[in-house]
Amino acid sequence: MMELDSLPATRDAYDAVAERYAQQFTDSLRDRPLERALLAAFAESVRAGGEGEVADLGCGPGYVTAHLRGLGLDAFGIDASPAMIRLAREANPDLRFEVGSMAALDIEDGVLGGVLSRFSIIHTPPQELPAVVGEFARVLAPGGQLLISCYATDDPAVPAQSFDHTVVTAYRWSPDHLAGLLRDVGVTEVARVLCEPKPTDRRQFQELQLLAARNHCPDQ
What we know:
Distance between the termini: 22 Å
Domain Methyltransferase: 54-144
Keywords: Methyltransferase, Transferase
Strand order of the largest sheet: 3-2-1-4-5-9-8
CATH architecture: 3-Layer(aba) Sandwich
CATH class: Alpha Beta
Strand content: 25-35%
CATH topology: Rossmann fold
Shape: globular
Organism: Kitasatospora cathayae
Order of helices and strands: HHEHEHEEHEEEHEE
Largest sheet: 7 strands, mixed
Radius of gyration: 16 Å
Protein name: Class I SAM-dependent methyltransferase
Number of domains: 1
CATH superfamily: Vaccinia Virus protein VP39
Number of helices: 6
Pfam families: Methyltransf_25
Structural class: alpha/beta
């Protein structure tokens, strides 16, 4: 495990905007029926695989963690921002939230039934992403489910494209490149959905929803 060089800047930036972020995005799933359906499919796959806890990595103020709990999952949240975790605990006192890094999770090997990474890798520089997906793989049980949401590159041949973000520099990812990184650590793509932006969206980027599963055998 390693700590990300980019983490302090990202953590401090989100600490500074935590209150405003929580107010702005609390209902963000309301107008996203396709994403709600994918989360429901993710939850069903976790339950079919034998349950197990589900980590919402980069959980922010915890509204999606609560949504996962509403889908019947034993979900908990982790975020690098102490301010976000404070807000998540205040809003959802019945759920567990912890401060932590996606590249150095305080979780035992192979114990989770699922991992959700909803736009939490967008601030991870390309050279640090392999360590993060390696942690995703490490904590998942064989057959455990992974759902990653992020912005997709315009050119699939380009592994990553940076863009200005209101909080801190962010990145879009090639779906094939991301699936390849997962393959390298024993996680196999199950399905991907590329969503076109709405004309009213602030960022006119495609969004990627990538569902994958931890291989049952280490050499697969």
